[in-house]
Design a protein that fits this description.
289 residues, alpha/beta, TIM Barrel, eight-stranded parallel beta barrel, 12 helices, 51% helix, globular
Length: 289
């Protein structure tokens, strides 16, 4: 057990008709909670770094790769270490060099031809090392971390042209979700998911903006071809930040003056939320044992 490629897990998901759960991590506690949930549920999992973590100096490419590798081995799980929403081709190459097993080139705000060109450059480099590449076509709107965009749905025929031109391993599609918290219930375009999947059945579809999506909508999206679902804001705010705040407000915790006990509370809270989401993905028991 240890780090594996995202493509390996998603191809299994295509055959098994489930989705691989993908969670953003923001601290060591978040990453450990994700691993704990995967171990409990015997589920494959994708742990996703964010650009802001590197910009803030919290992560280093080599350091986080080593930590993720160690955690996956300690928990006895298969984990794909993924870079989420990165517009920088050269930085993605560095991550590949340091041991990330999956990367996302996000040039979705650019024109189609430029998006194709950037994606091809990353695919060409990553494939030499067996690293999975995800790209996005259309815009998944909203704001999460330092990702902000207007919503622009993915056109099925354009998705087919994009995958043929790039040979990308996975495609993030815009079908009604947004990043961050929803002000109203999202309305997923399920026929659009089906249409895209019919045109590119061998390219796993990725659903971003999973926080706040009704679980029945997840299940329907999976039936129609989604093979990876991203959840980030839920873990950042409710799983990590609010748990820290509540723990540091506890008189017993304050009296103990031991940050390790609070870290354990956060790990457990993140694990509980991830377990809940894993149950919906259909990935329970799908890990290699």
């Amino acid at each position: 057990m240890g780090l594996v490629t995202m493509k390996y897990e998603m191809m299994k998901a295509i055959k098994g008709n489930y989705a691989v759960p993908a969670f953003n991590f923001f601290t060591y506690e978040t990453l450990s909670g994700i691993a704990e949930a995967a171990a409990q549920k015997k589920s494959p999992v994708v742990a996703m770094a964010t650009m802001s973590g590197f910009k803030m100096g919290l992560f280093s490419p080599k350091g986080i790769a080593k930590i993720a590798e160690g955690i996956s081995e300690d928990y006895g799980i298969n984990m794909a270490l993924h870079m989420d929403h990165c517009p920088d081709v050269e930085f993605l190459k560095q991550l590949v060099d340091y041991g990330f097993t999956s990367v996302m080139i996000d040039s979705s705000k650019k024109e189609f031809a430029e998006n194709v060109d950037d994606t091809c450059r990353v695919v060409e480099y990553a494939r030499k090392y067996g690293v999975t590449v995800e790209s996005e076509l259309g815009h998944v709107g909203g704001k999460e971390d330092d990702v902000e965009a207007e919503n622009l749905f993915t056109e099925p025929e354009e998705a087919a042209r994009f995958v043929k031109a790039t040979d990308v391993d996975a495609l993030a599609v815009a079908v009604g979700t947004v990043h961050g918290f929803y002000k109203a219930l999202p309305k997923l375009d399920f026929p659009r998911i089906s249409q895209i999947n019919e045109l590119i059945p061998n390219c796993p579809l990725v659903l971003h903006g999973g926080t706040g999506v009704p679980y029945d909508d997840f299940r329907e999206a999976i039936k129609r071809g989604v093979r990876k679902i991203n959840v980030g804001t839920e873990l950042k705010v409710n799983g990590t930040f609010n748990t820290f705040v509540n723990a540091y407000s506890d008189p017993a915790q304050l009296a103990a003056k031991d940050p390790r006990t609070i870290s354990k509370v956060v790990i457990d809270a993140v694990a509980a939320k991830c377990c809940e989401i894993i149950d919906v993905m259909g990935s329970v028991g799908k890990a290699d044992c």
